[in-house]
Automatic annotation (TrEMBL):
It comes from Helianthus annuus. PANTHER family: BETA-FRUCTOFURANOSIDASE, INSOLUBLE ISOENZYME CWINV1-RELATED (PTHR31953). This is Putative glycoside hydrolase, family 32. Belongs to the glycosyl hydrolase 32 family. CDD domains: GH32_Fruct1-like. PROSITE patterns: GLYCOSYL_HYDROL_F32. Residues 377-573 form the Glycosyl hydrolase family 32 C-terminal domain. Keywords: Glycosidase, Hydrolase.
Length: 580
């Protein structure tokens, strides 16, 4: 099918202008922190609305989930916990849901591992992490809320241990009476949470706790010899003025550049990653740097410190946590994707929140950033396959990929081009804009030189709805190329009430081979995209009205004047695993 994208899609673009401007002005960007909705938080789902439920992403049978907690491997099983409201589809009544798996794709749900039951977690068992102590002894560190005031609650840190180490399911957890192990002494009592996995060196266990002092985001470091008595280090592990509350800090060592194998938290790495989740923007930020074992401080490298603005995911992704898989010797990243729908819609559908497909993370050969890739086990769900080779896409071409379930798919494309002659100049005034803003200005319908080209996921038959994931290449005034990757929910739904942000990130890559790769996991209401082998990752939550189930279509497109070749495309229908 050979169509002019611009004319076909102009109607959709026009209806989206207010949203583009919202994003542009920064108004639509910030997703709210956990909002407390007392009227809704104990409203049990009457019926679970299926249409936007994902098939192969982690979610419980019903109700709300948020942060991944304490992922770990124990006696043949992967354990996964997450923040869960057993009573409703909005945040509240938080307990630790618990599921087990042999492959991190098929999940069996167990009873909640931690529920408020003691004075030291009476008002909530909030996020935390697992540490495997010597002798294969797992321990959970988590935040307990002991008073409702001051909002969002008075926070302490607790530990829990398995009641029965010989149970591979770890079904019972004990909260010893010597809890809490940390009280908020000389720290902000209601901004003191989310203990990290602990690591061991120089005769001590070390862990991080997220906090803030006014607008200064802080990760406090605590040390302990016995894992029960902890002392705060004199200096914060890391801090930054103007960044607000730091939630869910994570810290781990990396193997050398380009090496895929992960390391245990206590191993020494060539480099280290420090990550925090920024409550004010609901973005995450990670840095690569050196860890000074004597001073117990983290020093980000110049190339990947705060100014580099590195994020695991430039879309809907928050409160992430990694763990070391000792069996496959890899570091795995889990992240939560909240809904973009309204609270009323969430209540009506009876559920909210998914966990994204676990990703392997390792250090890019450049040493300046991480690479991420969906775990290999996902490929066991691949069904029917469609393959294309050497297909040319001229300006305005859209080509449908038929023969697979487009609403539940895995698509992997390699694009090539033969010349830079038509590349657009990078407008100097864009330098003050974020990649997200640039994607808002330069959507898929805005014709370019080299790009936009990519896929249209979850497209309705006549393209009233579609989620474009695409690249656009620019030439900067110093004659370098800049690759922008966008995942644009703006045209994803004809429902004007949805939050439909246009997410974007730059891809730091070498274009010598004139090749760019894109892999997207499409699962009904989520499009999770990996640019250039996982250099830039963007997740969008979308709620099409028309492009659902069998009415969803998948296309490749080019809206740049330079011809693009789909050198290779593999697309698979994805089967549903066992999901809780
Ligand atoms: N969610 C938890 C907190 C954490 C926040 C509460 C991050 O522990 O800071 O559900 O999403």
């Amino acid at each position: 099918m050979d169509l002019q994208i611009q004319s076909k899609l102009i109607r959709v673009l026009l209806c989206c202008i207010p949203i583009i401007f919202n994003t542009f002005n920064g108004n639509g960007v910030v997703m709210a922190s956990h909002k407390v909705n007392p009227n809704y938080q104990s409203v049990s789902a009457v019926k679970v609305k299926q249409v936007y439920r994902t098939a192969f992403h982690f979610q419980p049978k019903q109700h709300w989930i948020n942060d991944p907690n304490a992922p770990m491997y124990y006696k043949g099983l992967y354990h996964f916990f997450c923040q869960y409201n057993p009573k409703g589809a909005v945040w509240g009544n938080i307990v630790w849901a618990h599921s087990v798996s042999t492959d991190m794709i098929n999940w069996i749900s167990l009873k909640p591992a931690l529920v408020p039951s003691k004075w030291f977690d009476k008002y909530g068992c909030w996020s935390g992490s697992a540490t495997i102590l010597p002798g294969e002894k797992p321990v959970i560190l988590y935040t307990g809320v002991i008073k409702e005031k001051p909002e969002p609650g008075y926070q302490v840190q607790n530990y829990a241990i398995p009641a029965n180490y010989s149970d591979p399911y770890l079904q019972e957890w004990v909260k010893p009476d010597n809890n809490p192990i940390l009280k908020p002494v000389q720290v902000n009592i209601s901004s003191f949470r989310d203990p990290s996995t602990a690591w061991y060196n120089n005769g001590h266990w070390k862990m991080l706790v997220g906090s803030r002092h006014y607008s200064r985001g802080i990760a406090y470091l605590y040390r302990s010899k016995d894992f029960v008595r902890w002392t705060r280090a004199r200096h914060p592990f890391n801090e930054k003025l103007g960044t607000g509350m730091w939630e869910c800090p994570d810290f781990y060592p990396l193997s050398s550049q380009g090496q895929r194998n992960g390391l245990d938290a206590s191993a020494s790495g060539t480099k280290y990653v420090f990550k925090v989740s920024l409550d004010e923007t609901r973005n995450e930020c990670y840095m690569i740097g050196e860890y000074d074992l004597v001073q117990d401080r983290f020093h980000p490298d110049n190339t990947s410190g705060w100014t580099a603005g590195l994020r695991y995911d430039y879309g809907n992704f928050y409160a992430s946590k990694t763990f070391f898989d000792p069996i496959k010797k890899r570091r795995i990243l889990w992240g939560w994707a909240n809904e973009s729908s309204t609270k009323d819609e969430d209540v009506a559908k009876g559920w909210a929140g998914i966990q994204l497909i676990p990703r392997m993370v390792w250090l890019d050969p450049s040493g300046k950033q991480l690479l991420q890739w969906p775990i290999r086990e996902l490929e066991t769900l691949r069904g029917k396959k469609k393959n294309l080779k050497n297909v040319k896409l001229n300006k305005g071409d859209i080509m449908e990929i038929k023969g697979i379930t487009a609403a539940q798919a895995d698509v992997d494309v390699t694009f090539t081009f033969s010349s830079f002659s038509k590349v657009e100049p990078y407008d100097k005034k864009w330098e003050k804009f974020s990649p997200q803003d640039l994607c808002g200005i330069n959507g898929a319908t805005v014709q370019g030189g080299l790009g936009p080209f990519g896929i249209l996921a979850l497209a309705s038959k006549n393209l009233e709805e579609y989620t474009p994931v695409f690249f656009r290449i620019f030439k900067t005034h110093d004659k370098n190329y800049k690759v922008l990757m966008c995942s644009d929910a703006t045209p994803s739904s004809t429902n004007p009430n949805e939050y439909k942000p246009s997410f974007g990130g730059f891809v730091d890559m070498d274009l010598t081979n004139k090749t760019l790769c894109l892999r997207s996991l499409i699962d009904h209401s989520v499009v999770e995209s990996f640019g250039e082998g996982g250099k830039t990752v963007i997740t969008s939550r979308v709620y099409p009205e028309l492009a659902v189930y069998g009415d969803a279509h998948l296309h490749v497109f080019n809206n740049g004047s330079e011809t693009i070749t789909v050198e290779r495309l593999n697309a698979w229908s994805i089967n549903a695993p066992i999901m809780n």
